[in-house]
Design goal:
The chain is mostly helical. It has two domains: about 40 residues; about 30 residues, no CATH class. Helix content is about 45%, strand content about 10%. The chain is built from two helices and two strands; from the N terminus they run ααββ. It is rod-shaped and about 85 Å long.
């Protein structure tokens, strides 16, 4: 008596499921890679304060424009 198992039926979908899984993994990591490249060219405009010394650090403006960087001590 030959019994058919469901394991053999699922095994036929293995290449298809592998391709779908790899697609979603690549999509997930591409979000982080693209956002890292974007923020490398266009950093966030913010003024950060150093906790101990009170120095101001000004980030550079995007697009390669000239900006004066000043460090003040209060």
């Amino acid at each position: 008596m030959n019994r058919k198992t469901t394991l053999a039926a699922i095994g036929g979908y293995q290449p298809f499921l592998f391709c779908i899984g790899m697609y979603f993994v690549a999509l997930f990591f591409s979000i982080f890679i693209c956002s890292a490249i974007f923020y490398a060219f266009y950093p966030k405009k913010s003024i950060a304060k150093d906790a101990g010394t009170g120095h101001k650090i000004v980030t550079m403006a995007p697009g390669g424009s000239k900006m004066l960087l000043t460090v003040t001590n209060k």
